[in-house]
Specification:
Helices cover about 0% and strands about 45% of the residues. It has about 475 residues and is mostly beta strands. It has a five-stranded antiparallel β-sheet, with no helix packed on it. Strands 14-20-19-16-17 form a five-stranded mixed β-sheet, with no helix packed on it. Strands 23, 24, 26, 27 and 28 form a five-stranded antiparallel β-sheet that branches. A hairpin with a 4-residue loop joins β26 and β27. The chain starts with a helix and ends with a strand. The N terminus is likely disordered.
């Protein structure tokens, strides 16, 4: 009986087959970029452009923690412990016809067993100094170590098995984001590689600074390959949460390889299958249930969604200019107000940075008017943008949609169609060689000279198109859905 107990205890204890999984141990403290080999036995088979290594033991500004600049790491604490790797998943402006990638590689402690299921996971965090973010952040498991084809093709041939479900562009520079999945071995695999195994022409990017070269650099930590029969993988429906009425919320997880999955709504209707997570848009308080069977492990989980009423429901919001264009009338009407303190009227000349130009006290569902005399209007701008900042009595704030008003009838006006758009927009009426698109935070995400622009890779949200001519710079807003 004692022997049986010892065997069961051994089977149920998690066994991570990845050596030095959180880059804690080193042969020598890092003091420069490209020194991943000091986190033995990790390496990059390309000795020209190797992954970087940062550890708290370092006194160098290039490889210290939390300040790490040797691989474009920037400011970041490790997920656990004292060390992490810095890997290039793509590089803007290639060198000598190469894509300048890094691949984190390591040999597992033992070979994988045929038909055995493994839980594979690692964490990434976009480096603060990155000029862009990218899709296809992946992990590949192979029988032998991957080799580079140098110098014309620096991307090793591979079909990575682990990529975050949905393959989103990971842009989080604060939190560590997990990339995980279930892998069934064909037997004999013993090598692991982390990187971007897709050519740049097929790998979508978001550019934060279109004027300078640089990498899509991600910090990497806590890598694991664990036999699934040595752990219990429970179904995860996500965290209970509260949303405002009309909002959507992601429930579940983004673990790839969970194919035997069924989702139920609060009325026990099947709403999806084969997906670890999904977007839902409930209109009232409800719950959702996930049921999964992974390599013989069955489990269920429930997530509760509370739908809160909007603090203010706007019936209308308009901006109207006087005939002489000496003032503007901002008009809005509410049909419901809950604990609302006041409305701040905000104006912008570029559609990005807004300033409060006045306040109106809330008085319950009503019609409101605010007159803006345009005393600070700069004649160089042909368009003004307005929004309402709705302030609750507890100090929380929400914002209305943005309204724009064209102040002149100049010949430099242009239009965007369709709007909202999903895949492409077309610019008409523009006489410019430079068209740029920025997101709501003001970061340039795309620059082009084409009137028809592919926006299919951009995340959903509000964007601004800027047209630069010899005389001025105009902006228009569009929505990607």
């Amino acid at each position: 009986m004692i022997l049986v107990g010892l065997i069961v205890g051994k089977v149920k204890s998690q066994t991570n087959l990845v050596p030095n999984p959180s880059f804690e141990y080193y042969t020598q403290c890092p003091d420069n970029g490209g020194q991943i080999r000091r986190a033995y036995p990790w390496y990059s088979s390309d000795t020209t452009y190797t992954a970087a290594y940062s550890n708290a033991c370092s006194t160098s500004s290039l490889t210290s923690v939390p300040n790490s600049n040797g691989g474009g790491g920037g400011f970041q604490y490790p997920k656990t412990g004292n060390g992490f790797a810095v890997n290039y998943f793509s590089y803007r402006w290639h060198f000598a016809g190469t894509s300048m990638r890094n691949y984190l590689q390591v040999k597992l402690n033992s070979k994988l067993i045929k038909n055995r299921c493994y839980y594979v996971s690692f964490y990434v965090n976009l480096a603060n100094s990155s000029t862009m973010a990218v899709r296809n952040i992946s992990l590949n498991i192979s029988d032998t170590a991957l080799k580079y084809i140098f110098p014309f093709n620096r991307i090793p041939p591979a079909k990575p098995q682990i990529t975050q479900y949905g393959n989103p562009i990971i842009t989080d520079t604060l939190n560590w984001v997990q990339v995980a999945g279930i892998y069934t071995a064909h037997g004999g695999e013993q090598h692991l590689s982390i990187g971007n195994f897709v050519e740049d022409s097929y790998s979508d990017h978001i550019y934060f600074d279109s004027t300078r070269s640089g990498p899509a650099a991600y910090n990497v930590d806590d890598v694991s390959v664990i036999p699934l029969d040595s752990m219990q993988l429970k179904a995860s429906a996500g965290k209970d949460t509260t949303i405002l009425k009309g909002d959507s919320v992601w429930i579940g997880s983004r673990i790839c390889g969970l194919t035997n999955v069924v989702w139920y709504d609060g009325a026990n209707n099947v709403i999806d299958t084969g997906a670890p997570g999904l977007w839902v848009k409930p209109t009232s308080n409800t719950f959702y249930v996930i049921e999964q069977d992974v390599c013989g492990q069955y489990s269920r989980d429930t997530v509760y969604i509370t739908v809160a009423p909007l603090p203010v429901t706007l019936l209308s919001f308009n901006v109207i200019a006087s005939a002489a264009k000496q003032s503007e009338s901002i008009n809005w009407e509410t049909v419901s107000e809950i604990n609302t303190s006041h409305f701040s009227i905000q104006r912008s000349t570029d559609g990005i940075t807004f300033y409060t130009i006045g306040k109106v006290k809330a008085k319950g569902p009503n019609a409101y008017t605010f007159n803006d005399p345009l005393t600070t209007h700069d004649s160089r701008f042909t368009t003004l943008y307005y929004r309402l900042e709705i302030v609750d009595k507890n100090g929380s704030k929400t914002y209305s949609e943005i309204r724009s008003l064209f102040l002149t009838n100049g010949d430099s006006g242009f239009t965007i169609t369709p709007n909202p758009a999903k895949d492409f927009i077309t610019i008409t009426g523009a006489n410019s060689k430079e068209i740029s698109i920025s997101d709501a935070s003001g970061r340039t995400v795309l620059t082009t000279c084409n009137a028809k622009i592919d926006i299919s890779t951009l995340p959903k949200g509000v964007y601004f198109v800027a047209i630069t001519t010899n005389n001025n710079r105009e902006l228009r807003k569009f929505i990607k859905w």
